[in-house]
Write a structure and sequence with these properties.
This protein is of the alpha/beta class. It has helices spanning about 40-45, 50-75, 95-110, 120-125, 170-180, 185-195, 220-230, 235-270, 285-295, 310, 315-325; strands at about 1-5, 10-20, 30-40, 85-90, 115-120, 135-140, 145-155, 155-165, 275-280, 300-305. Strand 4, helix 3 (about 95-110) and strand 5 (about 115-120) form a beta-alpha-beta unit. Bound molecules: 5'-O-[(R)-(carboxyoxy)(hydroxy)phosphoryl]adenosine and zinc ion (ZN).
């Protein structure tokens, strides 16, 4: 089964063509025939963050060309496709509309079904693009927009065990970079500065460390970092390095504690050695990865991090999520574009529960 996938929910315009061999037991069922990701980072950098209107217009400008490019790269025409999939939420609504309307138009022209995909389900199933990771596994999804700990029991069966109570971790990295004047996107810059710094110089809080449950929080840490920076200003390069290192150490400490709780729960509920998947842009952070690796290994388990191109936003995971649902015989989602769409629809909203639904 061959799917064209489209991802436009944030600041990447991405298209991919993926095949599911239908093999469910053994072997690797996923084959990527073509994929491309166009980052808009340069368009947004002058504003220090993603500007939704600029993002939506950039998707319009590039999407058709990228679809053509992928079809050419795969050496196929529309007639070869079995379905077209696009992210229909959660995300910036202008961009989501661009991708989902384009996807529906292509599906209609190709006379194949359109499948709406939850962006978070794409991330949740993304490790299975590279290897048939067995269910259940724990997913730590950490990006600029999301920070969640999810137990992935099967395709379509996701339980949120923990979530940030305030900022996403990527957002906290980006804000820290802004305070330290390191540019956008901030995560890689903070990591680079942290390498040469003293992580013990500033005593920053470890949010929720030692508390029951698996929720996370980063707003207090970000404020503490800002206050420490203000107290120390004007900042020398070594001050910036020490602040970045102290921030990163606090993050790693807090996250390790929260994920430790989740791994304990996983061990209680399943007989298996824990499998922990880390996905999302922040999973690229080497200090965080090393800490998670040690944590899971101490419980006899394994840390799985999808290749960088499938860790951050991409369309292969969107095509793949649609294919996995199809092969599992799950019903299609409604095609309505949604800014908010929790992965675990049964879970109570964590914050921002208004008539539009949960923010996190
Ligand atoms: O998954 P992603 O590419 O996009 C979405 O947010 O959906 O994640 C981007 C986020 C940004 O906040 C960026 O600063 C952060 O991931 N990030 C990092 C690192 N690389 C990217 N944070 C910490 N350390 C990194 N090395
Ligand atoms: Zn994402």
């Amino acid at each position: 089964m061959l799917a064209l996938g489209i991802e436009t929910s944030c600041d990447e315009t991405a298209v991919a063509i993926v095949r599911h061999s239908g093999q469910v037991m053994g072997g690797q069922p996923a084959e990527i025939l073509a994929e491309t990701v166009l980052s808009q980072i340069d368009d947004h950098a002058p504003f220090g963050g993603v500007v939704p209107e600029i993002a939506a217009r950039a998707h319009v400008d590039h999407l058709d060309r990228l679809v053509r490019q992928c079809l050419d790269q795969a050496g196929i025409g529309l007639a070869a496709l079995d379905l077209v999939a696009a992210t229909t939420g959660p995300g910036l609504i202008g961009g989501v509309l661009v991708g989902s309307v384009a996807g529906q138009a292509i599906a209609s022209a190709a006379n194949v079904p359109f499948r709406a995909v939850n962006h978070l389900e794409g991330h949740a199933l993304s490790p299975r693009l590279a290897e048939p990771v067995a269910f259940p596994y724990l997913l730590f999804l950490v990006s600029g927009g999301h920070t969640q700990i999810v137990c992935v029991r099967a395709v379509g069966a996701y339980e949120r065990w923990g979530s940030t109570l305030d900022d996403a971790l990527g957002e906290a990295f980006d804000k820290t970079a802004k305070i330290l004047d390191l540019g956008f996107p901030g995560g890689p810059a903070v990591e680079r500065m942290a390498e040469g710094g003293d992580p013990t110089r500033f005593a920053l809080p470890r949010p929720l460390k030692g508390k029951p449950g698996c929720d996370l929080s980063f707003a207090g840490l970000k404020t503490a970092l800002r206050l420490a920076a203000e107290d120390t200003a004007p900042l020398s390069e070594s001050d910036v390095r020490d602040l970045a290192a102290s921030f990163q150490a606090a993050v790693v400490d807090s996250v390790s504690n929260r994920l430790g709780q989740a791994l304990d729960r996983f061990a209680e509920e399943t007989e298996d050695a824990p499998r922990l998947v880390a996905a999302g842009g922040v999973a690229a952070n080497k200090a965080l990865r090393a800490a998670l690796d040690t944590l899971v290994a101490s419980q006899g388990g394994r840390l799985i991090v999808p290749p960088a191109k499938h860790c951050t936003d991409n369309a292969a995971m969107i095509a793949w999520a649609a294919l996995e649902r199809e092969v599992a015989g799950l019903p299609a989602h409604p095609t309505t574009a949604r800014p908010r769409w929790p992965l675990d629809e049964a879970a109570a909203p964590v914050l921002g529960s208004g008539k539009k639904g949960a923010r996190a």
